[in-house]
Give the backbone structure.
Amino acid sequence: MEGWDPNTKSTLTQIPLLTIKSGPRDGALWTQRLKEEYKALIAYTSMNKSKDNDWFRISAANPEGTRWKGKCWYVHNLLKYEFDLQFDIPVTYPATAPELELPELDGKTEKMYRGGKICLTVHFKPLWAKNCPRFGIAHVLCLGLAPWLAAEIPVLVDSGTIKHKDDVATSSES
Amino acid sequence: MEVELKELLNDLQSLKKSISDPSDLALIDKMHLHVENIATLEKSGTTCRSKVKDMSAEVVDSNPYSRLMALQRMGIVDNYERIREFSVAIVGIGGVGSVAAEMLTRCGIGRLLLYDYDKVELANMNRLFFRPEQVGMTKTDAAVQTLSEINPDVVLESYTLNITTVEGFDTFMSSLTNKSFRTTKSGSGVDLVLSCVDNYEARMVVNQACNELNQTWMESGVSEDAVSGHIQLLIPGETACFACVPPLVVASGIDERTLKREGVCAASLPTTMGVVAGLLVQNTLKYLLKFGQVSRYLGYNALKDYFPTMEMKPNSQCSNTACLERQKEYILAKPTRDAAAKAKAADSEALSVAENPVHADNEWNISVVDDDEVDGADVRNSGVLPEGIVHELPVADEYPKQPITEAVGPADDLEELRRQLEALNAD
Ligand SMILES: [Zn+2]
């Protein structure tokens, strides 16, 4: 795993791997996969909480489990920056990874495609392809979103592109 | 403009009254005529041309198809007018797709189906086709606006949707199978699908749809560093599908590790995109109108002006089940294919015997090479790619397939799992 920091690597190895290769158009097989997704997400969330590194909330936004919504946050200079998080499970999942969207940051950074989709590193897609179907939603959050927030949020804050919600409140009051 | 021209005419009239020299008067009459001509031209400039019923080969200024129909007169194409029967679906109306759409529109294609979920932005202005005043419009609507002005004969359908989502995919599939325009040979509603998307995920979705529908399609791509690109023909069951082998890219010769990606997702050039769109539509025209040789894979390295070609056979271990079904059908249809090829060969032989008597000795010493021998490099069998082409992604690692156990109990109930995650989320 060239190109990943040791922390990401050790976290990744503790997320349960998935076994069922099925997507949202596969009926009962998708339900089986969905159960594995939940197990991996439960394990990952519990692990983050136990390490005092809780950083996202995610839930299925429809009964089929093909659309997901939640929040993610990042602490920079002791201030917490929180963003809406959403994504669709693509029809070709798990051959292709879901494209994570942070709609509030759309148009604010170059490291983003249209619609607020985050631009993943050159290391992500090869690793995902190599590990199909063992990686799931929990893995894309760990390998995709966590490093993206760590790299981009400090830049966006320091350049003044995004402001902490308390700052926004104070400046509008004054 | 119209008012200004009227003023000019009035001035000329008053000038004419004050002049007595007949040679000056003739000059003023001439000027009068010019102004009237300008006025007529100005009026006609704002109206679009009306639809034409049949493509005419007549060479006159007013015939939009005369230069295209000349292809038929020159013997390049047997029947150019057939182009009006064809439907082409273009997925992704960006730097490549929009230009491809314009080229096909100018060629007089019968019907175009356009798919994109994006809007036109000022950041797109380094590419061709879209204009600054279209910023904010959906790419599909802006394209329909421009294309219908260029050629009102083309039937245009615009689909503003994301094909990778479950709902988007359903609409995509049903639009491809809609046979209202004409039923095609393959039984679907379109003759060819052109993938002009900019990401692997969307390509895999086009691949999925085309494998399921047994729909021939062409793939196109431009690298994120903007200095290489490729086009590829995919015939389900006959050629490798997009999932058969890891995606291929033309190496730009730049080391990925030295490529500076800080602060940017992708670069783009109107030139590279225009070249790739040109190659794609050229291959499309050859495929639809049956002339020349249709390329299976054609790469473009802009830094070295290198154009590698190759062929890829389907992978019998492909992870896509629809691809495996098409492969089986293709093998089963081999006797029919062979018989048809034999009949065709016999026909053309009879024709050539009648036209030119065969010389007993081959005076030019030309050796005839079997088609199979000139095939490009077979990537899957040899495992070796032609120079300058590399895999973009690795193959999935082998892993022991675990039997799907229907475990019972609270740990395997979907609702229970959902509740557990929500409980953690609520904390
Ligand atoms: Zn395949």
Chain B has twelve helices and nine strands.
